[in-house]
Sequence to fold (297 residues):
Amino acid sequence: MAVSHLKNFIDYLQHQKKFSVHTITSYESDLNQFQIYLEKEIHDADLKKVSYLQVRTWVAELMDKNISAKSVNRKLSTLKSFYKYLLRNNIIDINPLQKIQGPKTPKKLPVFVDQTQMDELFNEIGFEEGFDGIRDKLLLDILYQTGIRRAELIGLKDQDIDLYNLSLKVLGKRNKERIIPISLSLKRNLETYFQVKKTEGLLSPYLLVNKKNIPLKENHIYKTVKHYLGIITTLDKKSPHVLRHTFATHLLNNGADINAVKELLGHANLSATQIYTHNTIEKLKKTYKQAHPRSGE
Fold:
């Protein structure tokens, strides 16, 4: 695979498509894996000589290695984007991905934490004393009350918080900004944190930092969420994204408009938000079975 084509494609994703660093890294990894496969199989990675049969063989090889259908489809999505780019720029004449279909993936409902369990987390669970405990409780509160992604949380700065207007500004995927309202309880937690942060002499412009004034890393946020969710729930998955699912599901369960939830989550398409309506339907089914006198017939 010509290095110049790959580099130009990555530059295109970064500067024109405004993809995140995380997404670009995934694209590079997928394309490098395909390049290694081509060099191993045909010893000539000329892009114009790649056929759909070779792509199909690569997909079969991935499946034989027990790579999940979801991961295979992501890799195929990367290749499709790359070859569309090459076709659009007249580097190839035929797109070898045109006939390729990915493996079917089982549809899974988003995992979320029950509302009573989230109430327990913030009202009954004890957090560590001092700065670290106040910060970690705020970390969880922001994720649950705003539904922002882990990367968006890491990028939050003090100046993004508008306590007067009860809102925060988030820089989401493709550098798209959105404003999210916050509650009075979250405002109070932010005010407490700002005061303690100032007392500790931590002057970083980033909102969430450690005692060395260094912004929190992804690993710290993941471990913190996993630890505290582990106290209140037996769910197998306990990640920051579970709190994003919980935010959306609780909003819809309590009557929020799906288009409003879409905007709050920063989804580009409504279809991405509609997955949460399935959980709402399941709740309605449960209520029906418990309440209707003939539901058991």
